[in-house]
C-alpha cells in the first residue's frame, strides 16, 4: 500500500486511519494481528519519545520488528513525532532521524516544529517534506500546541478548552500548508497527548472534547487530510464528528500502552498476557470507537 494514496482515499470516503503507537517492542505483534483480524487498515508508528523515555529502543528496532510481523495488506509503518525542540526543550537533529527512517523503510514520516515560531516551523516542515518527497513518501507536520508531552504540569483541561489555548490558527494553517508542502497536518482543537513524565504516565487522561467547527474551518482552509494526535480518551461522539469534519488519521497511544503496562504489572511480567490485552484493546478501538472494521474492503486497497 502507498501511504499517501491510502490517506487520500480514506478522506474521500469519510473513513479514518488509526495510527497506533508502539512504545514497547513486544506490543507490535498484537497490534498488527488485531488490525488484520478486524480487516482494517492502520498505521503502526513510533515517536522519538517512545525510545527515549519508554522501551521502543530505536526507530531501526521498530522497523526490524515490523519487518518480522507487519502485514502489508493491512498495515503501514509511520514515523511519528520527530521534534525540532523536544518535550525537555532541547534541540533535536531532526533531519538525521528522518534520513534514518527513510533508509529503514518507513512509509511516511512526521516532523514536529510546533514549539517553534511560525516561520521556523514552516522552514523545518518544508525541509522534511522535501526529503520525504524525494524518497517517494508523504510527510506530516504539526501546527498548534497539542499538550501533554511536556515535562512540567499541564494546565487544567477545562482551562485549555475554554481559552482555546494552543488551538491551531486557521489563517496560519492555510499559510503553513501552502508554504511547507506537507501532505497531512496535525492540528490542535481540544485534543491532548497522554503524559510521558514518569510521575503521570500511568494516570487516566482527562476526557477531552473537540471543537468540531474549528476542525471544519481548518480543513476548509488547508484542503489536506488532518491528523488528530492524542486520540485516546476523547468522547466517541466527538471522534465521529471530527472524522466528518476533516480528520483522516487518528493517533492512539495511551489506552493501548496502559493496557500493556497494567497487564505486565498484574501478571509479573507475563508478556503473552500483556499482548492479549493489547490485542483486545486495539480490536475494541477499531470496532467500537472508530468504526473501521472492514475498512480494507471499503478503501479497496
Structural write-up:
The chain is globular and about 50 Å long. It has one domain (3-292): Alpha-Beta Barrel (TIM Barrel). By secondary structure, it is an alpha/beta fold. It has an eight-stranded parallel beta barrel with strand order 1-2-3-4-5-6-7-8, surrounded by nine helices. The relative contact order is 0.17. The chain has helices at residues 3-13, 27-37, 48-52, 59-69, 94-104, 118-134, 157-163, 170-180, 212-222, 236-245, 254-266, 271-289, 295-299; strands spanning 17-21, 42-46, 75-83, 108-112, 139-143, 184-187, 226-228, 247-252.
For the termini, the CA-CA separation is 7 Å
The arrangement of helices and strands along the chain is HEHEHHEHEHEHHEHEHEHHH
Largest sheet: 8 strands, parallel, barrel
Q: What's the CATH architecture name? A: Alpha-Beta Barrel
- CATH level-4 homologous superfamily: Aldolase class I
Radius of gyration: 17 Å
Unreliable spans: none
CATH class: Alpha Beta
Q: What's the helical proportion of residues?
A: 40-55%
Mean pLDDT equals 91
- Structural class designation: alpha/beta
Number of domains: 1
Largest sheet, order of strands side by side? 1-2-3-4-5-6-7-8
**Number of distinct helices:** 13
CATH fold assignment: TIM Barrel
Amino acid at each position: 500500500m502507498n501511504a499517501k494514496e491510502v490517506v487520500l482515499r480514506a478522506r474521500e470516503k469519510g473513513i479514518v486511519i488509526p495510527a497506533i503507537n508502539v512504545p514497547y517492542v513486544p506490543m507490535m505483534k498484537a497490534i498488527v494481528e488485531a488490525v488484520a483480524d478486524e480487516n482494517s487498515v492502520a498505521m503502526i508508528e513510533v515517536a522519538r519519545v517512545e525510545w527515549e523515555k519508554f522501551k521502543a529502543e530505536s526507530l531501526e528496532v521498530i522497523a526490524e520488528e515490523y519487518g518480522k510481523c507487519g502485514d502489508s495488506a493491512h498495515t503501514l509503518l509511520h514515523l511519528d513525532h520527530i521534534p525540532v525542540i523536544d518535550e525537555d526543550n532541547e534541540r533535536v537533529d531532526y533531519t538525521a532521524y528522518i534520513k534514518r527512517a527513510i533508509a529503514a523503510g518507513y512509509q511516511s514520516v512526521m516532523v514536529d516544529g510546533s514549539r517553534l515560531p511560525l516561520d521556523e516551523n514552516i522552514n523545518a516542515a518544508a525541509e522534511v517534506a522535501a526529503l520525504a518527497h524525494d524518497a517517494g513518501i508523504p510527510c506530516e507536520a504539526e501546527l498548534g500546541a497539542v499538550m501533554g508531552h511536556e515535562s512540567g504540569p499541564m494546565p487544567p483541561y477545562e482551562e485549555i478548552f475554554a481559552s482555546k489555548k494552543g488551538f491551531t490558527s486557521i489563517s496560519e494553517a492555510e499559510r503553513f500548508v501552502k508554504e511547507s508542502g506537507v501532505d497531512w497536518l496535525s492540528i490542535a482543537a481540544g485534543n491532548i497527548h497522554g503524559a510521558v513524565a514518569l510521575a503521570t504516565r500511568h494516570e487516566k487522561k482527562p476526557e477531552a472534547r473537540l471543537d468540531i467547527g474549528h476542525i471544519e474551518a481548518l480543513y476548509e482552509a488547508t484542503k489536506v487530510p488532518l491528523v488528530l494526535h492524542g486520540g485516546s480518551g476523547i468522547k466517541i461522539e466527538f471522534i465521529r464528528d471530527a472524522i466528518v469534519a476533516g480528520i483522516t488519521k487518528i493517533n492512539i497511544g495511551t489506552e493501548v500502552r496502559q493496557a500493556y503496562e497494567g497487564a505486565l504489572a498484574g501478571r509479573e511480567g507475563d508478556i503473552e498476557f500483556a499482548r492479549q490485552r493489547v490485542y483486545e484493546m486495539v480490536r475494541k478501538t477499531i470496532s467500537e470507537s472508530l468504526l473501521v472494521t472492514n475498512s480494507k474492503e471499503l478503501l479497496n486497497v
